[in-house]
User: Fold these one by one.
Assistant:
Number 1:
Amino acid sequence: MDALELLQRFWDDPEELRKFFKKFQKDYENYYGKAKISSIVEKAIEDADTLFETLFELAEDESGKHLSEFFKPLHNKEAGKSYELQLLKAYGTLSNSFLRVYAIRYGTSYVITGGAIKLTDQMKDRKHTKVELYKLNLVRDYLKENGEDGEFVYLDI
């Protein structure tokens, strides 16, 4: 199972999402205000469904143009810049979405490394987002080191 499939499975599982939002309820409330966990879970599932639908539709466009508009630089200070092996993020489609899909620009393709429910300002603030940052850097370094000769393999991260 690849990173995108794992992400889809997690974001479509009400029980797993309920556990996650119970664990990080304070983070959610600090950023979004108070809400029932059942409402948050429902919002996450709806947003994820739309996000994946949009992602798959854009992936059908062979020019990659639309995917380049969907993925934004991970670091906001790089807005408007585009370069090889750039770390990227895509947001859920709902306003003020907490869903993120992470990828690396590789030629005209995008290597998806994972995703997260981001409820804090910095990725380094929580273990689950710190892991996603680690995966982004690990895959980028692999692609940088192996270039076009690198085989695409499933990295057990």
Note: Strands lie at 72-73, 87-91, 99-106, 109-117.
Number 2:
Amino acid sequence: MTPRDLPLAVFGAPGHRRIQRLQRALHARGLGRAAAFDYAERLDPSAPPLALPSSDDGAPTMVKLDAPAADAALYERLVRRGHRLLARDGAPPAGIDGHALAHRDLWFAGFADLLRAIAREAEAAAGPVRWLNPVEDILRMGDKWACREALAAAGVDVPPALGRVRSYAHLRALLDAHGCDRVFVKPRYGSAAAGVVAYRRHRDGRELAWTTAEVVGEDGAHAHLFNRLSPQRYTARPRIEALIDALAAQDCYAEAWIPKPRAAGVAGGCFDLRVIAFAGAPRQRMARIAAAPMTNLHLGNRRADPRSLLDEATWATVDATVRAAARVFPESAMIGFDLIPGRDRCVVLEANAFGDDVQHARCDGAEPADDQAEWVLAGLARTPSREARAHG
């Protein structure tokens, strides 16, 4: 099969390392390059009809929908699309700062509409499409509230939910109703810990909020949030109130703060895991160690081999939990799970349809891109013409 014959399309940011790693894995197997499409181009009303690659031997067209680029112009276009789709009052937002945590609900509505439009166009152009992860699974994982509810309904252990949060005052009422003083407040449509708040209150009235969001202004109706790589620590009630109110305006929820295990040999360090499942089975694993509540590696936290931190019983519990969580999305080949490990209980914090961007994570020598390239090979092997030759 020549590079031109490879019936594989990838949508995302063609120059990003995520797609480039997949291209290298395909090349290493003699498969040439996938056709890469930019989401921004598909938003252009004057864009030509989608032309997906195909092969002459009946191989199905395969498609990977990747994460969108962290691009301010693309973000604003998706926000405006969501504003139009949801028929919001007033003029659509404009001039959104590239680091602003703003209009996440509108962004998600716009992104969901774009993915569904791509799916319709792809299937109209190419017939049945084999998706790495289908659109509706991607969107269910991207809606963090819907995702945790789906996992919980399937019996997967997730942090107990206090509920959706309408305001800071409502959060305090939820804490009182549940007899709880430590929670995580999470944007419904967040990713990469953006806007996540680890909140604690004390009986003497003191409060503490750890977050990746910088708060500018102390009026919840007018406060602005900006994503920062260094966690922010707030103790003043007006600032915390503005933070929660601003998140609530974009939809957020609260769930119990589950303590993470200590990382042996790391002073003050606790850890959780990112486990990448492929075809329903756990594959690449990475421990993430941090002194602060957020462990995401892009925040400068440490990575470690989980085998240095887990005993065999805990390892087995993690694997069983990942398999159970992956069954909630049976049509999705690749899912990244964030988990808090334990010997008798493993808590799933998140399922991420774009969770394969973990560098230096391997299983049996294979990176996530290698698993995806093997998925492409398996798809090619199941073409009608090849199956006929195999049985001829």
Note: The first strand starts at residue 8 and ends at 12.
